[in-house]
Amino acid sequence: MKTPHQSLNQAASADAPAPASAAGTAGPAGAAPGDSGRPSRRSLLVGAGATALSGATALSAATTASAGATSAVSVAPADVVVPSPDQLPLTGGPEFPVGLFWPPHPYASTKERFAEIKGAGFDFVISGNYAGDGNIFKYQLGLARDTGLQLLISDDIQIRNMSRWFSISDTPTDFLSITPAEARALYTRARDAYGPYSSLAGFNFYDEPGAGWFTTLAKALAISRELAPQLLPYVNLLPSDDPAYYRNFIDTVKPSLISFDRYPLLSAGREDANYFHNWAIVRDAALRGDVPAWVFIQTLAYNNHREPTAAELRWQINVSLAYGAKGIQYFTYWTPEPARGEGFGPALITVEGRRTSRYYAAQQINNGWLHPVGRELKPLVSESVVHANETLLPNGAVGFTPTDLVPGISGSPVVVGTFRSRDAASGDRWLLVANRSHSAPAKAVVAVDQQKVGSVGVFQAGRKKYVPQRVGPVRVSLAPGAATLIKLGVK
Length: 491
Hints:
This protein is an alpha/beta fold. Helices cover about 30% and strands about 20% of the residues. The protein has an eight-stranded parallel β-barrel with strand order 1-2-3-6-7-8-9-10, surrounded by six helices. Helix 6 runs antiparallel to helix 7 (about 180-195), helix 8 packs parallel to helix 9 and helix 9 (about 245-255) runs parallel beside helix 10. The two termini are about 45 Å apart.
């Protein structure tokens, strides 16, 4: 996501036993004779705030025995069934997930503040903003439950130890590895601490991992699916122009979704020249793995990036929908404090807790457009995405070419995503037509083949229904950053 996600408080979970002190112990468990001057991986785990290995091993053995297996069996990705995203929190169900990162800090975590989040049209919260303690997580889970939100927990020390600070290896030979049994014990501790809360959607295993970490993430997600198949294992990826990065993530980790962040609104009115390229390769990776694609949108100014307008919030969302997004996440909700050193400007809520104009813009977009149109798009498959009437295509963009149903698109530059039903017997198509510009209105005409198209419906978000129109050219008038959804019924 960005630096706030990478440098959170690393406090231990409150429900974890305190680390054993050096005094009164016989030395780190598992240390080799004559190796007293070097820390073992077990002592590193203890120093990082996890339970001593003896307790972890006992917990792992007890958990495995209760499952009817032996603690000596390693967990490999091939051993565990990967649940369909349709069966998991947020990725499953009919509602389009809208989430946020950097929520109210612990002192501002109140029922009123969480109701404020819900009122702005958000469905889930990714924890952060110095929430790194087990008691705080539980308190926020209670607030989320009471206000109808779900929570993805970031930075629980147990999850960090099994997926970020230590690699998982069957035969660890260095001092920064843990065994699968140890990883299972850590995950069990986190699951048991927070699992009783109905608002727990899952855990954030790693934000912006390098490709070298994918093998350990594959093992960590396999453990999660074995011990809590009902929870969403979440990973957010780096922005990248390398397709292999995302393909390898899909092939190695076998994730339940693919999420990435790239913030396109640069200073001095510029756009990130590779934003569409990044989206195109993420879209391809999502289709390759048959998993939803999620994205973060930029809500604030920071180093070399400008403060978005309401139209620019809409533009990021609608371009992402055209490229097949099945989940939208806001970076950030609460404003990171100036001491972080990245020049963060006000987000939806200021550092002091005041609403900005972007809070009200997000509220209108989420409730009035994104949720209703997202509900239509969520079950559909992205078939293509093209840029029409754009003279100089951005890197990674594909220009419009006529199709069987749509022989032409004229007028202003627009980004058009075409979607189909998962039912192969259906020939219907949906077109999400988004204004290419976030600063100027657009007018376009979408031609349809009247010999093949039997009905045309234009979605009205306020009424949550398609309004039929005469089968013929569809005239589209779009405010800056806006979009419209058209359904073409085939004969």
